[in-house]
UniProtKB/TrEMBL annotation:
Its EC number is 3.6.1.9. It is an enzyme of class 3 (hydrolase). Residues 29-102, 167-227 form the NTP pyrophosphohydrolase MazG-like domain. This is Nucleoside triphosphate pyrophosphohydrolase. GO terms for molecular function: nucleoside triphosphate diphosphatase activity. The lineage of its organism: Bacteria, Pseudomonadati, Pseudomonadota, Alphaproteobacteria, Caulobacterales. NCBIfam families: mazG, PRK09562.1. Keywords: Hydrolase. The gene is mazG. InterPro entries: MazG-like_dom (IPR004518), NTP-PPase_MazG-like_C (IPR048011), NTP-PPase_MazG-like_N (IPR048015), NTP_PyrPHydrolase_MazG (IPR011551).
Length: 261
């Protein structure tokens, strides 16, 4: 019988973590030390998708899979669970959360399925004893803007929500005004808190408009990078660097880059 690629990967991971003859670096790692790499690999997957590079996506998905294998191996060493348990758990979860596919439920639209999904997740939380708060299982480790959006979505499901986008925008203007007051007062601690309030309202705007804020910000980051690189290239043609330029010149080039798009 031909060995499956996943079996070979599991064998490699076990060898890397072998007390005798394993890799010293891999042996030193813990869940906590590997977690940042796991997050980084997830972002690299997203980056490959953003660039539309399927060859790179294949490689990055492999790197992310290796992270799953790494965590699973460390858990197996502690007698907690193994890779097969991870697979079985997600298989069971997907079947449980898709009764319209694997059961008798009749969800005809994506919206109906999403509503049913949230009901099932709430039942799962209750079964795990996570009933203290609707917000309990929104992961703290998420990027803050993503977590803010998820928190506001949870609260919105029980009616804790501004009635319209107009009201959310009014709240944004209010929070920006409060930020301006603290900046003018020179109180940076309060300004920091007010800036957080501004960003949380921005997350609510994203939720209200059904826009993923991380996607929107990534697109703006790419746009900024593209236009600033245009400025750098234009300055090089003039025999200059950004340090040798001034805001007026660079702003004019920025507008040229914007117009070129």
């Amino acid at each position: 019988m031909t060995e499956r690629p996943i079996d070979r990967l599991l064998e490699i991971m076990a060898r890397l973590r072998a007390p005798e003859g394993g890799c010293p670096w891999d042996l030193e790692q813990t869940f906590a030390t590997i977690a940042p790499y796991t997050v980084e690999e997830a972002y690299e997957v997203a980056d490959a998708i953003e660039r539309g590079d399927l060859k790179d996506l294949r490689e990055e998905l492999g790197d992310l899979l290796f992270q799953v294998v790494f965590h699973s191996r460390m858990a197996e060493e502690q007698g907690a669970f193994a890779f097969d348990d991870v697979v079985e758990a997600i298989v069971a979860k997907m079947i449980r959360r898709h009764p319209h596919v694997f059961g008798e439920a009749d969800h005809r639209t994506s919206a109906e399925q999403t509503d049913a999904w949230e009901v099932i997740k709430a039942q799962e939380r209750a079964e795990k004893g996570k009933t203290a708060s609707l917000l309990d299982d929104v992961p703290v480790g998420l990027p803050a803007l993503t977590r803010a959006t998820k928190l506001s979505k949870r609260a919105a499901r029980v009616g804790f929500v501004w009635p319209s986008i107009t009201k959310v925008l009014e709240k944004l203007h209010e929070e920006v005004g409060e930020l301006e007051v603290e900046i003018a007062a020179g109180d940076m601690d309060k300004a920091r808190a007010e800036l957080g309030d501004v960003l949380f309202v921005v997350a609510n705007i994203a939720r209200t408009l059904d826009i993923e804020p991380e996607d929107a910000l990534r697109a703006t980051n790419a746009k900024f990078t593209r236009r600033f690189q245009y400025i750098e290239a234009a300055l090089r043609e003039r025999g200059k660097t950004p340090e040798q330029s001034d805001l007026a010149e660079m702003d004019a080039l920025w507008n040229a880059a914007k117009a070129a798009e």
